[in-house]
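=== RUN LOG ===
request id: a7f3
mode: sequence -> structure
chains: 1
length: 340
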Amino acid sequence: MSVPLTEAAPVAGGVARGARLAFALALAAAFVVTLARLDPARAWASVVGVHGAWLIAATLCYLTILPLWAWQWHLLAPRAPSQTFSAMLRVVTTTSGVLNTTPLLVGEATGVVLLVTVTGLERTTALSLLAMDQLLVGIAKLVVLATAALLAPLPDWMARAALGLILAVAALGALLLIGAFKGAWRSTARQVTSSVKPAPAASVRARVARALDALPTALSPLRSPRRGGGALALALVKKGVEVCAMICMQRAFGFDLPVGAAILALGMLNLSTLLPIVPGNVGVYEAAVVLAYARYGVSPEEGLGLAALQHLCYLVALAAPGVLWAGAARWWRASQVRRG
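=== RESULT ===
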C-alpha cells in the first residue's frame, strides 16, 4: 500500500539526519568543554557593558519574523473564509512558541493540528503546507550559506554539512514537485478507489486515494509564480531580518565587524539547529555563535555573552508570545467552564 506523498516528504532529509545529529552533539560537547575554560568575570563584564537600545532593536527584528511567517503561510494555504491573516498569525505564534520550547517534532505536529482546527484546512493540505514551508526554509538557509561562502571561505566541516543540506532539500523538492504536477496522482487515486475492498482495508485505501487526489491542489503554490515565489521571497526576507538582528547584537557589544560575520554566524546556526536535540537549542545555539565569531577575533568570553543575550532576545520574540497566547487561551477556557 502506498503512502501519501505529503506524509513521506518529511522523511526526505533522513539521509543527512544522522550526520546533523552527530554535528549538533559534537558542538554541544565542545561548548561544555569551552565553558569550563572561560573566565566568568570577563564574560560577565562583556554582558553588563552592552547598549540596551541595540538589544531592543534586535528583539524587534526577531519579532517581525512572526507576521512575515504568517504572511508566508497565508500565501501557501488555499483561500477560505476561515483562512484569514489573523488566524494564521495565531497559528504561527503558537507554533513558534512550541517549536522553541519542546523536543523535535512536537512543534511541527502542533502546527498541523492548529492549521486544521484554527484555519479549517484539510489534513493533507496542512501537511502539504508544512512540507512546502520546510522546502522554502531549506532553500533560504542554502542562500545564507552560499552568501557566507562568497564573502569568506567556509570551514571544511561546514561545507560538508552544507552538502548534506543540499541533498536533503533537493530530495524534498523533488518529492513535492512530483506531487504538485497537475493530474499526476489522479489516475492512481482512481485506480486505488476502484479496487477498494471491504473494511478495514477499504477505509485505509480510500483515505490514501483521497490524499493522493488532493495533492495537486494542496501543492498548487509550487506551480504558481505569485504564491510560490511570494512565499520564497518572504522566507528570504525572514533570513535577512535575522541577519539584521545579529548586526544589532554586534553593535550592542561594540563590535565593529563586517556584515559577513553575522551571515556566517547565521549559517552556522542554521546548520547546528537543523535537528534540535534539546528544547530551545540551549547550548548548541550558543556554541555555534561563539565558534562563528571566534573566526573574527572575538574572545570566547565575549562571544558567550553575545550568544547568550542574542538567544534570549530570540526566545523573547519568538517563544514568549506563543507561550503567553496559549496560556491566555487556556485561562479563558477555564474561566468559561467555571462560569458555565
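=== NOTES ===
The radius of gyration is 22 Å.
Residues 5-334 form one domain.
=== END ===
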